[in-house]
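Entry 14. Structure prediction run on the chain below.
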Amino acid sequence: MTLCVGALVCYALLVVVVWFFQDQFLYFPETAAREHIAQAASQRGLVLWPSDGDNYYGLVSWEPVVPSKGTILVWHGNAGSAIHRADYVQRLRNLGFRVVLLEYPGYGARSGKPGEPSFIADALQAARQAREEFGGPLYVWGESLGCGVASAVAADSELGVQGAVMITPWDRLPDLAQSLYWYLPARWLARDRYDNLANLHSFSGPVAVLMAGRDEVIPNKHTLRLYESLGGDKRLWVFQDAGHNSWPTAPNASWWAEVAEWMSRPRTSVP
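Output returned:
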């Protein structure tokens, strides 16, 4: 009996620890001074955007594409910062797109606390400013955690997002958490939800889903559940031998052009 009571107490303590410290399990920001970020960006041909004021939303190329096929807003995964995704600019700019690498509150040189409420509110503000400054068409691109942010922006019909790309996405974060931490009531402990299923349910634009066949972080069933739930124009790319962080990023990888062309081709059904 004493052993059972002790085990229950330890389990309860574990649940309490997970509840209070779950953000430390989900967010891994890398921070730096604004001057350092600006210098690192400059070395990669990027500038802080917008350039005025004390804050910034992300990074853009200092030589915009003219004419442009549109603007792609990119939200990265849960680790590092936007400067580590500078390769996106080269890959997509070469295909004729303006690229904005968005930074999360609490990441890079940005103030704020990581979390779904702050991420989504900030992303919507950034998307509104990008549309006002750059015009359309506007596309969203998410990577892992960033899919939850990108899909929330796509769900805002006033922004008129024309297409979405989801790299290694999940369906709902609480469902993913329950799969990974089956021994905990993780579905009910998760405060942040990042519900891609709900966000993309009524999105009328095309959605490209890219899945790593050997994803060790997001089991394929969660990515496929999202893909199968999409009722509109959709297409699935599978990197059969890739893991969550080892999908092909080489500039000459054919999927970059395939995805960009498919996402941006004219469709009469997209507003």
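The mean pLDDT is 91.
Filed with the rest of this week's runs.
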